[in-house]
Amino acid sequence: MNDHEDLILAGCGEADRHEPELFDTHIRAVIRYADPVAWTIAAAIARATETNRGLLDAWRHDVAVVVVSDHGPTATMAQVHTNADAGFSSPLRYAAASPGSLAGVACIASGFRGPTLNFAMRPCDGIPVGLLVGRAWLHRGMARALVLASFAVSKDRGCCARSLLLVPNAALPGHATLDARAMEWITQGAQ
Amino acid sequence: MVTAIPVAVTGAAWHTALGDDLEDVWQALLEGRSGLRTVPFPGRLRNMLAAPATDVSRPPEARLIEMAAATLSRALEAAGRTPSDPGVQLVIATSLGAYLDDATSRASLSAWGDAVAATVGAVTKPIVISTACSSGADAIMVATELVRSGASGCCVAGGVDVLTPSKRLAHTALGTMSPTRLRPFDIRHDGTLLGEGSAFLVIEPITSNRQAVAKLLGAASANDATGMAGADVTGLSAAYALKRSFLDAGLAPSEVGLVNAHGSGTLMNDTTECQAFNRVFTASDRPIVFATKPNFGHTLGATGAIEAIAVIMALRTGTVPPIGGLEQPIPELMLRMPVGARIDSDARVGVSLTLGFGGFDTSLVFGTAS
Amino acid sequence: MREDVIAELRKTIVDDLFVEIAEDQIGVDDGLRTVIGLDSVGFVELRVLCEQKFSVEINDEDYTPENFTSIRLLSELIDRLQSARRLAS
Predict the structure, then answer these.
(1) What is the tally of structural domains in chain A?
(2) Chain A contact for C19 (CB, 8 A cutoff)
(3) Predicted pLDDT of residue A191
(4) Quick check: C41 and B173 CB within 8 A?
(5) CATH number of the structural domain spanning residue B211
(6) Can you tell me the mean pLDDT for B102-117?
(7) Is residue B126 part of a domain?
(8) Strand spans (E) along B132-274
(9) Residue A84 and residue B165: Cβ atoms within 8 Å?
(10) Which chains touch C (3 or more CB pairs under 8 A)?
(11) With 80 as the cut, is the pLDDT of residue B1 above it?
């Protein structure tokens, strides 16, 4: 039985590294520096949202973004730590060390101004609550579309960012709904 | 399908540079006291003032975990509950926490949350959030959805953050730290000052047998989508957060009597907030705007939760503390503010707005308990 | 004009500020905001990098749009600050 028949699976995307060519020069200049994990998540989200670009263009300010990752912008955090020990601080890196940037980079890249959350949790733990909150937003008019993304590092897959674009059933009637297979995919299995 | 169960706050607790007791700290705010003081630092900072709530010479992760554990336990106690109750869901948040100052701390973003849960004897896995300065408010927003939907019968939600050398250096380098004092909405505003602390709310269905401290009417957020550190100074997304939260609460802006502003004292944030208020409130809407960062410092990941309690206290007591450091209000802010003295208020609805670093804007709407 | 400072500033803009322009394409009078595209966070980053690389302190009075308009004007600020530091020591 499908528990998610109220949600249409409008797109999915995956990435295992930063792919600068997916983003305009202007976007890269605005962001200037972000952690590789944030860029990888943004790449997956870019892929998930490209097939329904027209719809999202109209809804841009009401697209919600929920990211779930227990792995933070650790490379940048480590740099900030090292710099601080030497009495130095890089404003660019401090901004990029914020765990919120795992969602924020995608928002900046796509112009999404909907509600945004970053769950600092493993996908298997955080995706269910992220979906619950995102679905509530869609139903109550807080958002018109939901981008759900997960990031994990595993021995067999290495870095893996996955993203789904979900819209209410009424927005794309007749399209495939969110199903257990997609949920298992975004949750990236038990870790 | 999500059902919307009305939600109440049945317990609250904070740990701040001015103390722990709700009424004592509120009295300190009404008297205009501040927890900001000189905190030594082995290097050059833009300002040596900060508002510590712990012994900052101790390791940051230990302070983070202890503060969160103690504060959420007190909140639950106030609600007649315990952390080991299987019906209680922890929803805890920080911004950068101890991640920048402790290599093991950042290996897993949720590990500190698991440590908090273990410390208090919680039997369910905690929900851990880290957005930015809006983290504490975001935790409350998530808890609201969990209780409204029936997924949880009781959440203890809030935020915690710690003062660390890396953060003091960073706000010096960014130029966001005031070289003088924290004066939100004053014509001399020139930056913020850092603090630390913790605050948690117990959130339950309004029909629970517990006595409500306040009603939690609405919660919503928005993203500026503008830059990694900068805000959208047009106030568009901050206004979205406010409007969405009013929609969520089923209220018109004219029904809002109080707003606890983010009030961080930076030119950028103050400008953004003024623009947002001007977008949302009309000339006939006259909520009182107040701000508590001059008292507590900017407590980063805890601030949204600490300021939620400030709104609740203002609603419960009918008093609004003066905004510290505010003597000459900027003309752009056209709403009422307590300048130099407290104001009495009969407001029944209050809002807490938090603007997170990197564009995370969250608005919480509270109502009087009865 | 201090060629060594100019060269270091060009390298900083490309390597540390992630500006996607070749070093030799950055003109000494190109507007750092209008042509190179730095925004407010880029400028604060440039300020702290100059302090670190050139061992100077750029206080609020010197951190002005005028001094940070171009790498020529910035190199002149750095030169002034380094000279003042030498005189003081």
Answers:
(1) 1
(2) yes
(3) 47
(4) no
(5) 3.40.47.10
(6) 95
(7) yes
(8) 155-161, 197-205, 214-223, 258-260
(9) yes
(10) A, B
(11) no
pLDDT per position in chain C (89 positions), as tens? 789 999 999 999 999 999 999 999 999 999 999 999 999 999 999 999 999 999 999 999 999 999 999 999 999 999 999 999 889 88
Question: Which of A21, A35, A92, A101 is the mutation pick for testing C, counting most C CBs within 10 A?
Answer: A92
- B282-313, pLDDT tens digit by residue? 989 989 999 999 999 999 999 999 999 999 99
Per-domain residue ranges of chain C: 3-88
Q: Using the beta-carbon criterion (under 8 Å), do C48 and A33 form an inter-chain contact? A: no
Instruction: Find, in chain B, the residue whose alpha carbon is nearest to that of A105.
Output: B228
Active site residues of B: 133, 262, 298
How far CA B317 is from CA of A90, B137, B311, B340, in Å, comes to 44, 22, 10, 19
**Dihedral, CA of residue B230, residue B233, residue B236 and residue B242, to nearest 10:** 80
Per-residue DSSP letters for C18-54?
Answer: ---S-GGG--TTS-TTTTS---HHHHHHHHHHHHHHH
Q: CA of A81: which chain B residue's CA is closest?
A: B100
Distance CA B282, CA B260 (A): 18
Q: Return the CATH fold of C3-88.
A: 1.10.1200
A84: domain range? Answer: 7-187
Cβ-Cβ contacts under 8 Å between A and B: the total is 190
- For an interface test with B, give the residue of C48, C50, C58 to mutate (most B CBs within 10 A): C48
pTM for this predicted structure: 0.97
Q: Which domain holds residue B187?
A: 7-367
